[in-house]
Design brief:
single chain, 214 residues, 12 helices
């Protein structure tokens, strides 16, 4: 049975993860530059729109912050998880990564209008499930160079976490995380799916290497 102080500590760690996740890299850096990228390009506060509207250096800063906060909360939660708490340190780490991603998507500091959460999920995985990053990146890159659609690449790559978790025979915490991550990314990219169906989704033509060689 959990100690009386274990559940409050667990809740505080998850609340902290959400609050840290609510610090949006693009919006925080945008304030320093005097811009709100939610009013530019696709209107999304993520790394792709940051790159398209503000350039590579700005986008790199955004990615570092968004991945970094996912890694930070995953490490803190797994490190300071109560020994007699209701969840194992690893499970709490995955929960914190998801809480930070929810904060990124619906940030309390920015009117609950944030990004799509892929970078923050990757940060948590870098700490808790690093072996999944290489196959995830391989799928993402393959879809991107084949189609030029960043959103589609993110959806398919994250969805591949589910069979990857089964194939790698990871623990239950990672299995549940993979399913939650896939569903969350699918939800946050619902507008991209609609635009793909309508044929209006923008794409990076410069990265379509297979088409160039054709």
């Amino acid at each position: 049975m959990a100690h009386n102080g274990a559940m409050p500590t667990t809740c505080l760690l998850l609340l902290f993860a959400y609050l840290i996740g609510s610090v949006s890299g693009s919006l925080a850096l945008g304030r320093l530059r005097g811009v709100d990228i939610r009013t530019q390009g696709s209107g999304n506060a993520g790394g792709t729109n940051a790159f398209r509207t503000q350039g590579a250096t700005f986008a790199l800063g955004v990615v570092v912050i968004d991945i970094g906060k996912g890694a930070l909360v995953a490490w803190l939660a797994s490190r300071f998880a109560p020994v007699d708490g209701p969840f194992s340190p690893r499970a709490l780490g995955f929960m914190a990564a998801l809480a930070a991603t929810v904060g990124h998507v619906w940030p309390i500091w920015h009117g609950f209008r944030g990004g799509k959460g892929v970078g923050t999920l990757l940060g948590g995985m870098a700490v808790l499930w690093p072996m999944a990053l290489l196959p995830l990146f391989a799928v993402w890159t393959g879809v991107l160079v084949a189609t030029g659609y960043v959103g589609l690449a993110s959806i398919i790559a994250t969805a591949c976490l589910v069979p990857l978790a089964w194939w790698m025979q990871v623990d239950r915490a990672a299995q549940l995380f993979s399913l939650a991550a896939a569903l969350l990314v699918l939800f946050t990219h619902r507008v991209n799916i609609r635009r793909l169906c309508d044929g209006t989704e923008s794409r990076f033509e410069r990265v379509r290497l297979w088409r160039r060689r054709a």
